[in-house]
Design goal:
alpha+beta, 3 helices
Length: about 130
């Protein structure tokens, strides 16, 4: 990804100043929301390695099938609500809406995701989907 490009997560920052350090350089997101945003960027960029690495081992699938990623056109991410998930918290919740198109048809994913922190690292635990 171009270093001057806007971050896919919609933060308004460049990729290298936002999610890039987490996806490309092994830095750890400091909050549950930062992890949520970086995981969205991971899906946009089809980064199976990052998505699996940041998924809690108790719920992590063995593999992800991102083979159709080139058919997805991600349109944006909106954070609806966050609960805890800060620097000193051990758990956090992030509700979000991700919009995308497949074959010209618009879709949205509305999820409330749960995160846990172990040591200095946040992990995605699970999510509840809404329509």
């Amino acid at each position: 990804m171009n270093t001057d490009s806007a971050c896919p997560c919609g933060s308004g920052k460049t990729y290298v100043a936002c999610c890039g350090p987490y996806l490309d350089h092994g830095q750890r997101p400091p909050t549950a929301e930062a992890l949520m945003r970086s995981r969205y960027s991971g899906y946009v960029l089809a980064r199976e390695d990052y998505l699996l690495r940041t998924w809690h081992e108790s719920t992590r699938p063995e593999t992800l099938d991102l083979s159709d990623a080139s058919q997805l056109n991600w349109l944006g991410l909106k954070i609806v609500h966050t609960e805890a998930g800060g620097f000193d918290d051990m758990q956090g919740v992030v509700e979000f809406v991700a919009r995308y198109k497949i074959g010209g048809k618009a879709h949205r994913l509305h999820e409330t995701s749960r995160f846990v922190r172990e040591g200095e690292q946040w992990f995605y635990l699970e999510g509840d989907f809404r329509k």
